[in-house]
Design goal:
alpha/beta; 12-stranded parallel beta sheet; 3-stranded antiparallel beta sheet; 18 helices; disordered N terminus; TBCC domain-containing protein 1; TBCC1
Length: 615
């Protein structure tokens, strides 16, 4: 079949797109999870996991309300908890629980049949367990390597954004992730990442289907088939859609499983038939609607590097034929996309410099947010969120709302992040402060320096409602139960000297209680809530402060109150009082300018005049 014919067929609905979440939030830097022996090794692993299957679980009440009717029987078979994962893979208990929790965070929670683990609360994850096939698929993609970074073409522009050299420059290993960051190198664009993920899935789709395949009833080992139940597990990696809807159940997108009766499931389909159909309909998200993909003169940047599993020339080929989508189809069916292409449904805060940005629930498209390359700025993203990525930022404050799935912070310097989330992963950052309200242990990976963590320290009127909506429990805060993993991420495409992988990673330290302060989120002149709704508003930090931090806060408040009373009661002549007031105002104004907070005041004033001014 020619490239033109293949591309035309792939653009006929429905389309299959790679889910970004497993690759952005589901890769774990544990070398023991990477299995390179092929399908045979994964089949042996499944056999080991089957030896530790949980008894038929009785779903917790908190979870049962969110699971489709009938899911108990469908998802109650062949499930495993972290103890079984630890025994099968030889992992520590904490690492096995991390695998289970990571799977819970990346499983799809919308569309057709939803696995109960995807909507389980934190206390229920162990009792619910994971489907063994989902565990095997998650472990399979641990062989994925990220797109290699590329040299920045505009060093002058980067130098303007990163004007202050770091004290770590020149003291770290030349291949350290911190030394390959801007201005020397920069991260791949979203289009490159999507093309790379798509190339990985296309290459490994035969093996993935082989893992899910079963023998025919006559026992013919050469005639493998795929059942409806097995096929649905691919929803971990793929989503389906057409022009009339944003999301279809994966099984309903296929001609051989669509509209099957639950009481009489569709007959198993030959593996080869399923593979052929999927390859014809698997395409980049930018090809979802004809005419959506565009091309610049140079198409996707070819870094010239290669990666052990999917060579970059397979994902980013310059020679191409014309495509009905308006882009150019390369030999492997990928489409060259614009460097500034951004996936639908993701809210971006990108490249903000010396400014304040506000995004509220009305601005959020689907709970997916990326905050990238912001410098000397304050970013507010307030509302119910699902996944958030923060990378490449410096000298900034980022305040996030309630994040139900996961937050990933990467390659940031001198950033204060304030977030209430189910999970957070911190990678390759330095001199950052994290004020956290998290239900699971914070994961710290890579080459980090001078990081501090502290309890959550703010609130806004809808915070408690947003926490309830996304399933974050404010009574559970594991901010200080850090899990620090290896210095080197095996998914990184950068080569490292021998022995570096054995180096001890530097973990964050806990902020001293006397340095803890509350952060006030401005109201931006919003109207007061109606009388009947006032009791629903959050009026204080919903996360309970540890006693040392609470005592330090009370001591500071008392000291401020004593100072105010002293200033009020001191006997001074009127001219002395005016001098004192003038001096206080002068010092305050100097502090505003020296810290850059004066700009925030101007930004807030501009927002009050024009609500769109901070977008």
């Amino acid at each position: 079949m020619s490239a033109e014919t293949t591309s035309a067929a792939s653009l006929e609905p429905p389309w299959l797109h790679v889910r970004r979440e497993p690759f952005e939030y589901g890769l774990l830097p544990l070398p023991s999870l990477i299995i390179n022996e092929g399908v045979y090794a994964f089949r042996n692993l499944r056999t080991k996991l089957l030896e530790h299957v949980l008894p038929t679980p009785s779903w917790p009440v908190s979870n049962a309300a969110t699971v489709n009717v009938g899911s108990h029987g469908k998802f109650g078979k062949k499930r495993v908890a972290s103890a079984g994962i630890a025994a099968s893979l030889g992992l520590q208990e904490a690492h096995a629980h991390l695998v289970l929790d990571t799977l819970a965070s990346v499983l799809p929670d919308e569309g057709g049949d939803i696995d109960p683990l995807a909507r389980s609360s934190v206390p229920d994850i162990e009792s619910v367990g994971a489907d063994i096939d989902d565990v095997v698929l998650l472990l399979y993609i641990q062989t994925y390597k990220r797109v290699p970074p590329r040299a920045h073409k505009d060093a002058a522009a980067v130098a303007d954004v990163w004007p202050t050299p770091s004290v770590f420059d020149g003291f770290l290993n030349a291949t350290s992730p911190l030394q390959t960051r801007c201005p020397r190198r920069t991260l791949p664009c979203q289009a490159e990442e999507e093309a790379h993920q798509l190339a990985f899935v296309r290459k490994h789709l035969p093996s993935l289907l082989a893992l899910l395949a079963e023998s025919t009833e006559d026992g013919d080992q050469d005639a493998k088939v795929i059942t409806l139940e097995k096929f649905q597990h691919l929803a971990l990696l793929l989503r389906a859609g057409d022009a009339s809807t944003d999301l279809l159940p994966l099984s309903q997108a296929t001609p051989f499983f669509a509209n099957s009766d639950p009481d009489m499931p569709a007959a198993p389909v030959p593996l080869a038939q399923v593979l052929d159909w999927m390859l014809l309909h698997l395409c980049a998200a930018s090809e979802r609607t004809p005419g959506k993909a565009h091309i610049k003169d140079n198409g996707i940047h070819d870094s010239g590097g290669s990666e052990a599993d999917v060579p970059m020339q397979d994902a980013c080929v310059s020679g191409a034929a014309s495509s009905p989508s308006g882009g150019a189809t390369v030999s492997n069916g990928l489409t060259q996309m614009r460097r500034d292409w951004r996936p639908e449904g993701v809210t971006y805060v990108d490249g903000v410099t010396r400014a304040s940005v506000l995004k509220t629930e009305a601005d959020l498209k689907s709970g997916l947010v990326k905050v990238a390359n912001c410098h000397d700025s304050v970013v507010y993203v307030l509302g119910p969120l699902k996944y958030v990525s923060v990378f490449g930022c410096s000298d900034s404050i980022v305040v996030l709302g309630a994040v139900g799935k996961a937050v990933r912070v990467e390659l940031c310097e001198r950033v204060q992040l304030i977030v209430a989330s189910a999970r957070i992963c911190i990678a390759n950052c330095r001199e950052c402060l994290f004020n956290l309200g998290v239900n699971q242990r914070p994961l710290v990976i890579g080459d980090n320096h001078n990081l501090q963590v502290a309890p959550y320290n703010t609130f806004y009127p809808k915070l408690e409602a947003d926490l309830a909506q996304v399933g974050v429990d404010a009574t559970v805060n594991s901010w200080d139960r850090l899990l620090t993993l290896g210095l080197i991420d095996p998914h990184d495409s950068i080569s490292h000297p021998a022995g570096v992988a054995d180096a001890q990673a530097e973990g964050p330290v806990l902020l001293q209680p006397e340095r803890f302060t509350n952060f006030a989120i401005p109201k931006w002149g919003e109207a007061e809530p109606q009388q009947q709704q006032q009791h629903l508003q959050t009026r204080a930090n919903p996360f309970l402060l540890p006693k040392p931090f609470l005592l330090a806060q009370q001591h500071r408040s008392k000291a401020v109150e004593n100072l105010k009373q002293t200033l009020k009661s001191v006997a001074l002549e009127e001219n002395r009082k005016r001098d004192l007031t003038t001096a206080i105002h002068a010092y305050f104004k100097e502090w505003l300018y020296s810290t850059g907070n004066i700009r925030q005041i101007y930004d807030l004033q501009g927002h009050e005049r024009d609500p769109k001014a901070m977008d």
